[in-house]
Specification:
This protein is α/β, with parallel strands linked by helices. It is 33% helix and 24% strand. Strands 2-1-3-4-5-6-7 form a seven-stranded mixed sheet. The two termini are 14 Å apart.
Length: 211
C-alpha cells in the first residue's frame, strides 16, 4: 500500500518512510506539491491544521493522503510554542532561532516568577488520513520529557537537541533514527495510523466507507 505525505519537509519524509517500511507500506511525497495552493495553517490545534492539510491535498492525488501537525508544548510557557513550534521565532525561522527563543522565554519566566524551575515539556503529533477530500482516521501521539540548557546530539531536527527523554537518558538528537521513532510522538501516531489502516482495509468493501 502506498501513502502520500502532505509535507515538503524532507526530514519528516525520511522518518515516515523508514517507519513505513517496517509495516510493508510505501510513503511518497505528493507529486508537484510545491505547485499546489498552500494550506494556511491557522488552526488553534494540531488536529485542525492536520485536517486542513489532509483534506485539501487529498483532492489532488488518487489514493490515500496523510498529513501531520506536530510541535512542542512546554508546561511553564502555558503550552507554547504549540502549533507555532516551527515559527516560534517568526515565519520561516530556523531551528536555531526557535531554540534560542525557547530558552530565552523559559529563563524570562523563571526570573520573573521566581518559581521552582519547571522544564517539563511534551512533543505532540496528530496525523490525519484523507481520501478525495474526505477525512478518514485521526490519531495522536506524544512523548514527555524536559528542556535542557545546552544542546546534546547531532541527529533529529527542531527542538530535539534540547528535548531530554528521561527513560533513555538522552535527548532526541542523541538517538538513532530507529530509537527515536520507537519512542517519539510521531512514531506513536504512525503506529496508531497503521492500526487504523488495517481496520480500513478489512472493511474496504463496506459501502459506507466510500472507497
Amino acid at each position: 500500500m502506498r501513502l502520500y505525505l502532505a509535507s515538503s519537509n524532507p526530514r519528516k519524509l525520511r522518518e515516515f518512510r523508514q517507519a513505513a517500511r517496517a509495516h510493508g507500506l510505501r510513503v511518497e511525497p505528493i507529486p508537484n506539491l510545491e505547485r499546489l495552493p498552500e494550506v494556511v495553517e491557522d488552526g488553534s490545534t494540531f488536529a485542525e491544521n492536520a485536517r486542513k492539510k489532509a483534506a485539501q491535498y487529498s483532492r489532488y492525488v488518487e489514493g490515500l493522503v496523510f498529513a501531520d501537525d506536530s510541535g512542542l508544548c512546554v508546561e511553564a510557557l502555558g503550552g507554547a510554542p504549540g502549533v507555532r513550534s516551527a515559527r516560534f521565532a517568526g515565519e520561516r525561522a530556523s531551528d536555531d532561532a526557535n531554540n534560542r527563543k525557547l530558552l530565552k522565554e523559559l529563563r524570562r519566566v523563571e526570573t520573573s516568577t521566581k518559581s521552582p524551575r519547571n522544564r517539563r515539556a511534551r512533543y505532540v503529533a496528530v496525523i490525519v488520513l484523507a481520501r478525495r477530500g474526505k477525512i478518514l482516521p485521526e490519531v495522536e501521539g506524544s512523548a514527555s520529557g524536559e528542556i535542557i540548557d545546552e544542546p546534546r546530539g547531532s541527529g533529529g531536527f527542531g527542538y530535539d537537541p534540547y528535548f531530554y527523554y528521561p527513560p533513555l537518558g538522552k535527548t532526541f538528537a542523541e538517538l538513532t533514527p530507529e530509537e527515536k521513532f520507537q519512542v517519539s510522538h510521531r512514531g506513536e501516531a504512525f503506529r496508531k495510523l497503521f492500526a487504523e489502516l488495517k481496520r480500513l482495509v478489512a472493511n474496504e468493501k463496506n459501502p459506507s466507507l466510500s472507497f
